[in-house]
Every structure is written in structure tokens, then in C-alpha cells.
Design a protein that fits this description.
Elements lengths: L1 H15 L25 H16 L7 E7 L4 E6 L4 E6 L5 E6 L1 H10 L5 H39 L1
Antiparallel strand pairs: 1-2, 2-3, 3-4
Helix pairs in contact: 1-3
């Protein structure tokens, strides 16, 4: 349990900083000013991202889109891929690629939650870790407050 707790603590610390570090997760770019009605279609934005992805990850890389994170306030779409830890940011209005970056936070998150091994390992390890931390917290509180309570009771009895 100590190893799981140590891994979870270290990776959790890194994940807490992912928005402040371009190495962990690329910063969100800003697209051209405009209205949502002026945006290119999802299919056009996806195609631009796939082309940019293949230029960076290689033509043999699996370019299956996992999700598209639409940011209307910045006129940008972040396109993430199913099998690679890449993110392509595309201007929603022009369709221009603003940034192609590696998302190191994704593999760190898989280590953090145990899914890097398997989904079953994730389920078991997170349950063991949660129950273990709960037991440690309860016994720690008992070891702190129990003796104080016992001494206070003995003083009253004398």
C-alpha cells in the first residue's frame, strides 16, 4: 500500500501542475476573433487536426479522434487522439492549426490511477489505496485523540 500511496502522491502532485506547465499539457491557444456561427464544421476542424497530427506523430500513427474539446471563449478546438498522447489545437474560425503538442499529463494520469496496467488493476488498486488511507486516517486520529481522552478521564477519576 505504501508503494501505491507514494506513486499516487507523486503523480497527483504533477497532475496538480499540468495547467502551469507546457511540458505536462500544452497551453490553450487563442483563435481569431469571431462568433460561433462563423466556425468551420466539426468535420473540417477534425480533418485539419488529423493532417497536423500525422505530420508530427508519423504517417503510420493511429489518428482516431478520441475527443474534441470546444473552447468558444478562445475560438479554439483541442483535438485529442485515441491511441497517442497528442493534442492538436485548431482555430475554430479559420481551421488553421495553432499548436501540436504532446500531452505528458495523460500517461502520468494513467500511472496515477493504475490504468496503465489494466482496468482491473485500476479498480483493485484504487480500492485498496482508498480503504488503506481511510484506515490510516481513522487509526491516526484514534492514536492522537485516544490517549488525550484517556488521560483526561483519569484526571477526572482521581
Amino acid at each position: 500500500m505504501a508503494i501505491l500511496l507514494l506513486i499516487s502522491a507523486i503523480t497527483g502532485l504533477l497532475l496538480g501542475w499540468k495547467k502551469q506547465s507546457d511540458w505536462l499539457q500544452p497551453g490553450t491557444q487563442k483563435g481569431q476573433k469571431g462568433e460561433l456561427a462563423d466556425w468551420k464544421s466539426i468535420a473540417e476542424l477534425s480533418e485539419a487536426a488529423i493532417i497536423a497530427f500525422r505530420q508530427n506523430a508519423g504517417p503510420e500513427a493511429n489518428a482516431e479522434v478520441d475527443r474534441m474539446d470546444v473552447r468558444p471563449e478562445k475560438n479554439v478546438v483541442k483535438v485529442r487522439f485515441e491511441y497517442e498522447d497528442y493534442e492538436v489545437q485548431v482555430d475554430g474560425i479559420t481551421g488553421a492549426v495553432l499548436n501540436v503538442g504532446k500531452r505528458n499529463a495523460d500517461w502520468i494520469e494513467r500511472i496515477h490511477d493504475g490504468s496503465i496496467v489494466s482496468d482491473m488493476f485500476k479498480l483493485i488498486s484504487m480500492n485498496v489505496l482508498s480503504i488503506g488511507v481511510f484506515i490510516m486516517a481513522i487509526t491516526g486520529l484514534w492514536l492522537y485523540f485516544g490517549p488525550k481522552r484517556y488521560r483526561a478521564q483519569r484526571r477526572r477519576d482521581v
